[in-house]
């Protein structure tokens, strides 16, 4: 009985909180023909609902379609922009009132990337992070990729019309 209890306890301790190595930032290409002045609004739009971009007051059918797609994408992401500077947006999320992670979203005219810069209560040490927190960051990266794809598709539709 004691041995079984010991094995169960050991299994719980080992499986309770797994961490992963933080991967090197992936350089994501910005689709061609997206002007630099639109990069920041596209990223902000994928973070949250509170920033205005050209799609909030659509002027064309393409912009209306983009607005609908962004509406479906943006829902509650749990991410907020903390600091906005030229070429960089700092975003963070707080989950369950205690698990915090912050990323820098850096961008140039041709590419963008995420870097995890801070974490609390997620076993963050600069090299490793809790697997669930890494998943939150990967989901954010995916949302931003979708946002750029939506923008590019809308522009192509408008240019073809």
Protein architecture, described:
By secondary structure, the chain is of the alpha+beta class. It has one domain. It is 44% helix and 26% strand. The chain contains four helices and seven strands. The chain has a five-stranded antiparallel beta sheet, with helices on one face. It has a two-stranded antiparallel ribbon with strand order 1-7. Strand 3 and strand 4 form a beta hairpin. The N and C termini lie far apart (74 Å).
Quick recap:
With 161 residues, the chain is α+β, with helices and mostly antiparallel strands. The protein is 44% helix and 26% strand.
Notable characteristics:
161 residues; alpha+beta; five-stranded antiparallel β-sheet; two-stranded antiparallel ribbon; 4 helices; 26% strand
């Amino acid at each position: 009985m004691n041995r079984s209890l010991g094995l169960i306890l050991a299994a719980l301790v080992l499986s309770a909180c797994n961490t992963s190595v933080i991967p090197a930032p992936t350089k994501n290409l910005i689709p061609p023909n997206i002007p630099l002045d639109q990069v920041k609004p596209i990223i902000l739009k994928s973070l949250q609902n509170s920033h205005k971009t050209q799609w909030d007051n659509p002027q064309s059918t393409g912009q209306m379609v983009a607005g609908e797609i962004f509406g479906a994408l943006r829902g509650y992401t749990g991410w907020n922009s903390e600091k906005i500077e030229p070429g960089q947006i700092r975003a963070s999320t707080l989950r369950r009132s205690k698990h915090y992670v912050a990323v820098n979203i850096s961008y140039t005219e041709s590419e963008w990337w995420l870097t995890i810069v801070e974490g609390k209560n997620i076993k963050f040490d600069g090299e490793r992070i809790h697997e669930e927190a890494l998943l939150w960051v990967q989901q954010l990266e995916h949302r931003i990729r979708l946002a750029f794809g939506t923008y590019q598709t809308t522009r192509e539709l408008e240019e073809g019309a």
